[in-house]
Design brief:
single chain; seven-stranded mixed sheet; Metallo-beta-lactamase, Chain A; outer membrane lipoprotein receptor (LolB), chain A
Length: 445
């Protein structure tokens, strides 16, 4: 098969030759990747309105997404439960980590990239039909494959990326319901899956070829850093960037780092800061609160440093496959205690809707609770703050667990937040009613 001829036929069918920019909008559903309720489960689902602008010549893209709550009761992360809409934008250029690859995963961007690279073709039989698969190595060495039908339209584009938790992960984007629009042919149905579960279901309602688009340069990446400040004798709160924050506990002969990181760079910064604050004592344990991407992305740095992982037993299958767990990993079911006579650190499972495997850590002598996601304190209103009279079901679950365990909590060190806060903040948040449409339950500590 003549590869160049095939690609020119695809470009002609799509109208890619004279397409320099595009803007399209639609609605549907988005799913927050890496924020499933339990390991190996589907990602939480939200209602979506969506607009994307692409500059093919500059290989730049801007996606604007507005999310509202869909699941009831809420299950998983993604900042839910959302009590009001959340709007955010994602910029992709050659300067961002995945870079212009996001443009390559669109039909018109794919054929342009295939023409510019040494593409190869093969045929496959699927669903009783023969499709032509166009393969090439794209931006930054990523392998990309596009499935072309008899009408020379691209039905699916696959690529594979390395994920710090899942290992090699396939991104599969399917395109359907192509229609002619102002000299081009464009898919009105777009579905994307990552790691075997959907992340986007979009019905396109508006397409504007060669529209004037304004795609700003992305903000420069913030260097990873960790800065510890003492919150009790032998206990530090490690703030820095990127979030979440962590905690460090000094025992008699060793140290414990609590809460993982969104990246290996932040994890390495945590380790370096811990060694600075507690010189001469090894970091023996690292407590991983749960499997979400922003809390487990840095696990490999702890494993590489020979630090024993303490995590919930639900994570065994997820962590063992990519080598994030070792023979010495401590798999927690309900409770695990570190007590060397000088200090007692209790690690407790928290049944809740955010993550089925969530662990919190408690220092009885200091009356200090270290927890993430089911209690945050940013000092400013957020979309998952319930209106007056309602209680977040995630906060309610934490309050119930504290009462059931009879923990005497004076202060809370939330991993998402600015600093340690008095437990009174949680008590006040629980002074609501049971009228929440998200089935939250009231209570008090």
């Amino acid at each position: 098969m003549n590869t160049a001829l095939l690609l020119m036929q695809v470009a002609a069918a799509l109208g890619a030759g004279d397409l320099h920019t595009i803007q399209y909008s639609g609605s549907g559903f988005t799913y927050v990747f890496g924020q499933s309720y339990q390991p190996g489960g589907a990602y939480p689902k939200f209602r979506l309105t969506y607009t994307r602008a692409i500059d093919f010549d500059a290989r730049a893209s801007r996606e604007q997404v507005t999310r509202t709550q869909f699941e009831e009761p809420p299950r998983g992360g993604g900042n839910q439960p959302l009590y009001r809409e959340v709007t955010g934008a994602t910029l992709s250029t050659d300067a961002t980590p995945w870079g212009a690859g996001t443009v390559t995963l669109t039909p018109h961007g794919f054929v342009n990239a295939a023409l510019a690279n040494a593409a190869t073709v093969r045929t496959v039989r699927t669903g009783g039909r023969t499709l032509t698969v166009v393969s090439f190595t794209g931006h930054r060495g990523f392998k990309v494959e596009g499935y072309v039908n008899a009408q020379h339209l691209i039905e699916r584009i696959d690529t594979w990326v390395q994920n710090p938790i899942l290992g090699e992960t396939r991104i599969e984007t399917t395109y359907a319901d192509y229609r002619p629009v102002a000299g081009i042919t464009f898919p009105m149905r777009i579905v994307q899956r990552q790691g075997g579960f959907p992340t986007l279901e979009l019905t396109v309602s508006d397409v504007r070829p060669n529209a004037t688009v304004d795609i700003p340069a992305p903000a420069p990446a913030v260097p990873a850093r960790a800065e510890g400040h003492r919150i009790a004798d032998g206990v530090w709160y490690l703030t820095g960037a990127p979030e979440p924050n962590s905690q460090l506990v000094e025992m008699r002969d060793y140290a414990v780092l609590i809460e993982s990181s969104i990246s290996e760079a932040r994890a390495a910064a945590n380790i370096a800061e811990a060694r600075r604050l507690v010189p001469g004592k090894p970091i023996r344990y690292h407590v991983n609160s749960h499997h979400h991407a922003d809390h487990a992305g840095g696990l490999r740095a702890y494993v590489s440093a020979g630090i024993t992982l303490v995590t919930h037993e639900m994570n065994r299958r997820l962590y063992e496959r990519p080598g994030l767990a070792t023979a010495g990993t401590v798999w927690v079911k309900d409770r695990y205690v570190l007590d060397d006579g000088s200090r007692r650190l209790e690690i407790h499972h928290v049944p809740n809707g955010h993550a089925a495997n969530l662990l919190m850590s408690y220092l009885p002598r200091e009356r200090l609770l270290m927890v993430t996601d089911v209690f945050n304190d940013f000092g400013e209103p957020r979309p998952n703050d319930p209106p007056p009279g309602l209680v977040s079901p995630y906060y309610a679950a934490l309050g119930e667990r504290i009462r059931a365990l009879k923990l005497d909590v004076e202060r809370i060190a939330p991993s998402h937040g600015r600093d340690v806060v008095p437990a009174e903040r949680l008590r006040k948040a629980l002074e609501g009613t049971v009228q929440s449409p998200l089935r939250g339950r009231s209570g008090s500590l």
